[in-house]
Batch of 2 targets.
Target 1
Amino acid sequence: MAIRTRLIRSFVACGFIGAFIASSIFYFVVRYGYIRTTEDFLTKQSAVLKEQFAPYLTGADPARGMSLAKDVAQKTGFRVTLIDSSGKVVLDSHEDPAVMENHLGRPEVQEALKKGRGSSMRWSSTIGRSMLYVAFRVDSPDGVVGIFRLSVPLATLQEGVLAGLPWLLVGLGVSVVVSIIVALVEAARISRPLESMTRAARRMASGEFKEYHYPQADGEIAVLGATLNFLAASMGKLVRDLESSNRKFETVLQSSVSGMVLVGTDRRVVMANKACARILGESRESLEGLPYVRALRNTALIDLVSTTLETGKSQSAEVKILIPAEKIVYAYALPIESAGGREAILILHDITHVRRLETVRTDFVQNISHELKTPVTIIQGYAETLRDAPPEDPRAVKEMAALVAREAERLSELVRSLLELASIESGHLTLSLGEVDPASVVAEVVRRMTPLANKKGLTMVNSTSCERSSPLAGAVPEGGAGQPRSPRAPAAPITADRTLVERALTNLVDNAIKYTPGPGTVEVWAEDAAASGLGLGPGALFGVRDTGPGLADEDKERVFERFYRGSKDRSRETGGTGLGLSLVKHWVAAHGGRTWVESEEGRGSTFYIYLPATPTAATGTSDKP
């Protein structure tokens, strides 16, 4: 349908609807006013006539009353009804009272009995017409004697209202004619430039992007025309650019959300997303525009992209990236054929965590197998000896039995530690919280572990109340791991599970004793974490420093893993389950604390435990504070 036709229809429809609504409102207002005027007139007449008809409620001649009622009805056009207090019709100007039903339940009668006056508009079952009723209560010194009622047919009122209908229709017709004239004029003024713009838009849709002229356009329509011309110029350039870049972005959008690098035909990076910048350790801005050889800085990745650009075939490989940090990525290189030549997109999936988990799983299987194999072999060997060729010397038998018992206890301890670790990792650890004095925990652990240290030729030192001038002077080489930095501030009591705190500190001390050759020193202390200079919050910082062989960098990163030992050639000598530090990590994390280690090979190690003043959400572990 043409714009002009729609505009004409809209204008005419609006004019007709407006006129119809106005006429309807006028009709109902006039009708309402007419009814209210008639009701007021009936009220005034009733107030006068009820006094004339009141005697006929108290015994006056009914025939005279009926004659009077008909006379009033003939002169005024009103229907007169007289009703006694029981609802019986005494006389009526239009019907025989003897055949009329009781009127006590009529709305206007009920209202008049209650308020003295009542009115209603309803259908009359007596004469079969809609009526307007006004009723007045008639009182005497003895009380209510009846009701005097006047009524008039609503049809009479309707006739009065409809008398002005022809003039109303004339007004409605004039409004419609005026609306049509206005619609024709306005539709022509608006539709001509719009029709011209429609034709221009169709030509733009077919690819004709040029400037167009729109006659008779003014106001907002002129602005629309200028906008269409600007749109035509912009779309001309945009369509040309989109034709070239659409294939590139479509390939990118359909690829993985991992790191992405788009290499253009000039062998420079056109686009790099945030994930790629994070993997390569550069910002997106610094990567874009660089030759891809300089941007990637990895021979394997460069070879993938080069092969793809040369052959036009997809390439993939698992690649280790060493800068800025060691990562393992699975790289895809995909070719993109564009109008300017061949381009390539490189997609990088970071699978470092997956490979690390696989390594941990493999190490766990190997370590648990190793830990179980030795005691089982010993137990099996001695058991077979006792079964097949028992020694005659009772002392030899007793020694074999003792060895079997020791290895069995070691197996039992390993199983208990594994079960406890599994319970913790499944979230079943419950803390028995209470006030814990860090200094008393250190004192108790030192007291308990001193005999074990002395047996190995080591000195146990509780340096909680000492200055940070190291009591290990001469034991730890100058500049070694964990060198003191400032005087220690005493740690205030914290809220924690004392049993787990003692066990964690005991495990660290036990680990230090096992790996420190005698003569040597193991130092233990507690201090205020916030005053330690390590950027920690309120709480307690526990430290265990030894003069042992220290840890290599790769060992520091994994020392808290299950069964991981920093000195594998000494693992059998030191004994233990290989789960002690892993348990420490989980116990501390359950309090919302942290564990980490400072160490250098040949310079000893310092293990730290930080516990907040009040347990919070776990913050994990780290090799640095």
Target 2
Amino acid sequence: MPTITSTTQLTETNIDLSSNNTSVTSEISSTIFETMTIIPSDFNTTAITMINASEQFSTDDNENIVSIMESTIATTLSSIDTDISTTTTTTGRTTTTTMTPPNLLINPDAELGSLDGWNQNGPSPVMIDSNGQFNENYYPHSGTFCFVGGEGPDSPSRLVQNVKLLGGVQGFTESQLDAGFLRAELSFYYQTYNQILVPHDLVQVSLMFRSASSILSTVDSGEKACTTSHPGWCHFIDSFPLPTGVRSIDYTMIFSRKGFIGSDIDCYIDDNSLKII
């Protein structure tokens, strides 16, 4: 906003700022020291502040100063239209990124074409299947490979993988693991070969929570058979609180034969996932 500041010696000064027409009149007798600040009427504000001082000056000096004031005011008012500053405000955008917890399992879907990352832990070996080789038209849920119960006289077959939490992929500390707000999310897909008049073979996944030296607790999905379609996949997902003191988790796939005919364990698991959320 334009302002005019003038220092002069006046006894009385009258200024009319309406409609940008300015006249200055002065009656000079005894002289006082004055400071005048003017904000033009274009901004609907007129302020005249006078500060009196004791020093007096001559009449001739007063006349010269009044003349200077008239010239200064006229020049300032003529430039009002071009002396307006503009402030441009730039609106910033805040972007929030949500991090998705990683799947902590190695080779969770057998897509390596092998059992790398897993340990056999049962009387019969788990196998990997591709393109419906184990049972015709029973294909992986995704990709090229999946896990199947296998074949052998004994049941169940199992695969186990130990997942380190303390200092693992997500770098958890002891205090974070023991804080009581983290959960283990378990997810997998399963399908069951349909045999007429024979009970379905079943799958199950368990999580064993381990401290540095002992087993703390175990949770599981329960035994599952996908009977909604043959062939076809079902999905299991659930989450469980981490017990205090947990430092690693044993993730175990279990394939159980329930039929009384044959030696195959005809049930499948694919796309395993273990996340800490």
